[in-house]
Q: What sequence folds into this?
């Protein structure tokens, strides 16, 4: 198998989810609750976050969904603000938060090493595209990226195959040459739906071994294990 491109999920894969987004998710809930503390706590729970500990469960709205899905979930859970109002403000809060995003590893070092192997690199996230760009700029990896897809980039949302198909199209690759790397089950499902060559799960995010292993071809501790995985795969004769 020849892998020519790697598409990364962002939160929990490149960025420390809790340290980067817990304060922003809290801000979203308080905005949606219009200052009502009890309602804000209820909205956080509805989106998968324990308001006391800040812990967020895998595959929950906060962990895995786009702005619109989080906003709709909060309205369903009691927010009286309008959907468009919530989406507009959540996008702003995430854009502001992107500047303070906390990486899980030396992203520039890892991306430079992968580029040196001739790989095309991209990011596919349920966040908005401007926020992904700002994060990439802050981490000094923007010039190393061949492709960026947010929920608003016109490729649809996970787990539909569009973000991977867009990466393939824009970089002249076959989906079978693409490895999808992510921390949630919907990243693995997107890889399957697009017939990507590899679905690689990382354990640095909100997903765990039990929820990821059934859907992943490989599970690595973090993106720091990617290069050695690629080396191992290159050495394995095709059966
Ligand atoms: Mg993620």
A:
């Amino acid at each position: 198998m020849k892998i020519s491109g790697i598409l990364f999920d962002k939160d929990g894969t490149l960025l420390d989810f809790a340290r980067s987004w817990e304060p922003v998710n809290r801000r979203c809930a308080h905005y949606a609750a219009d200052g009502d503390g009890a309602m804000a706590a209820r909205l956080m729970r509805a989106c998968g976050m324990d308001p006391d500990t800040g812990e967020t469960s895998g595959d929950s709205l906060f962990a895995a969904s786009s702005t619109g899905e989080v906003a709709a979930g909060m309205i369903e859970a009691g927010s009286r603000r309008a959907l468009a109002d919530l989406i507009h403000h959540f996008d702003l809060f995430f854009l502001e938060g992107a500047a303070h995003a906390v990486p899980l590893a030396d992203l520039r070092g890892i991306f430079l090493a992968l580029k040196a192997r001739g790989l095309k690199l991209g990011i596919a996230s349920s966040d908005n595209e401007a926020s992904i760009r700002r994060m990439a700029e802050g981490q000094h990896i923007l010039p190393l990226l061949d492709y960026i897809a947010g929920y608003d980039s016109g490729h649809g949302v996970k787990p539909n195959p569009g973000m991977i198909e867009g990466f393939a199209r824009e970089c002249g690759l076959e989906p079978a040459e693409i490895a999808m790397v992510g921390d949630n089950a919907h990243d693995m499902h997107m890889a399957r739906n697009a017939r990507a060559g590899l679905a690689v799960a990382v354990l640095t995010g909100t997903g765990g071994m039990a929820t990821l292993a059934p859907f992943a071809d490989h599970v690595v501790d973090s993106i720091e294990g990617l290069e050695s995985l690629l080396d191992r795969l290159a050495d394995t004769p095709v059966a």
Remarks:
- The chain is about 45% helix and 10% strand.
- The chain has two domains: 5-16+103-235, 18-98.
- The chain has a mean pLDDT of 95.
